[in-house]
Design goal:
three-stranded mixed beta sheet; 323 residues; 12 strands; seven-stranded antiparallel beta sheet
């Protein structure tokens, strides 16, 4: 840290900002240093922090001078040389240590600089002892910090290992976490029934059936069980069975309907249809079937339940219980 006041020629850090500013402007040799001074000494908050730290370094420099430690190469080669001060005229710490070592008992007797220089024992004797003690203390503190950090790392590693074993033991000992045997799949034991004839199985028409509906199948070895439900209420108006490769022609009441169907080869009745999934595949037509009266009679629909390229009937699979 640089002593900015000392370098611009000030000794009192309490001078007014105007005076300090004029002294900074007078500094011509180093523009970088001038910018540093302006950024610190002309900013009240930064100046307060800098003044506080400077007072500490001044006290340290005075203490080092009194202990004879200020003339070291490291101190003089750094910015700390700005705080290289002459020893004060008060009794130094070295002199007190010398008197205490001689057993004089008078550790507060003032001694001038000249008297210290004329003493029989060399002046650097006490300073060397103090420097060595300070070095030992510094090494001891550094060793303690390194040992503490090493212990923290070891404890962290051991904690992670212990936590891992603890979690493993939880999963091994907790009966709720043990893999439960898969529930046995219920066996389907419904009796096979003969295939119904192609035609309407049930009907619940609320009005007169007059609009034609034709359902065509292809001979593929499967039969179809179809259901016609009202579009809004999902009320079932008719159930139909179409054998493999057969065609069904019926009349339905005027209205809007949805067509649902399932396919299979073995019939177990209207409830179980062609057996449990995946033996029974259920689908619905996404198109709404609007049967209406026209000037020429009634419009109708022909549905071909045939898987074909470019077919215009879009269907969607539905769950077994949604049929």
């Amino acid at each position: 840290m640089k002593d900015l006041y000392k370098r611009i020629g000030f000794r009192n850090q309490e001078d007014s900002p105007e005076v300090i500013h004029r002294a900074i402007l007078a500094w011509k040799s180093d523009t970088s240093f001038r910018r540093d001074c302006e950024g610190v000494l002309l900013n009240p908050e930064r100046k307060a922090v800098y003044d506080r730290h400077r007072r500490v370094l001044v006290q340290i420099g005075q203490l080092r001078a009194n202990l004879g430690l200020s003339r070291t190469a490291l101190w003089l080669s750094s910015d700390c040389s700005d705080f290289d001060l002459p020893p004060s005229n008060t009794t130094s710490e070295i002199e007190r240590l010398r008197h205490r070592a001689r057993g004089s008992g008078d550790s507060t007797r003032p001694t001038s600089v000249d008297a210290r220089q004329g003493a029989s024992a060399p002046s650097h004797w006490g300073a060397g002892i103090i420097a060595r003690v300070v070095g030992w203390v510094r090494d001891l503190v550094r060793f303690a910090l390194d040992l503490t950090w090493y212990c923290v790392k070891v404890a962290a590693v051991l904690g992670l290992i212990g936590g891992g074993f603890y979690l493993i033991s939880l999963f091994q000992d907790d009966p709720l976490r043990k893999e439960q045997p898969a529930a046995a799949k219920p066996v389907f034991k419904e009796p096979i029934m003969p295939l119904p004839q192609t035609g309407v199985m049930t009907s619940a028409f609320r009005t007169e059936a007059a609009a034609p509906l034709t359902i065509v199948t292809q001979k593929k070895g499967v039969a179809y069980y179809a259901k016609l439900v009202e579009w809004k209420t999902e009320h079932t108006v008719a159930t139909m069975f179409i054998r493999d490769g057969k065609t069904l022609e019926i009349l339905v009441p005027v209205g809007s309907y949805e067509l649902r169907y399932c396919a299979g080869s073995t019939w177990y009745g209207p409830v179980h249809r062609f057996g449990p999934h995946p033996d029974t595949l259920c689908s619905r037509a996404e198109e709404r079937f609007d049967f209406a009266r026209t000037p020429d009679g009634y419009n109708g629909y022909t549905v071909e339940l045939i898987l074909q390229l470019h077919g215009n009937l879009q269907t969607k699979a539905i769950p077994f219980d949604r049929f």
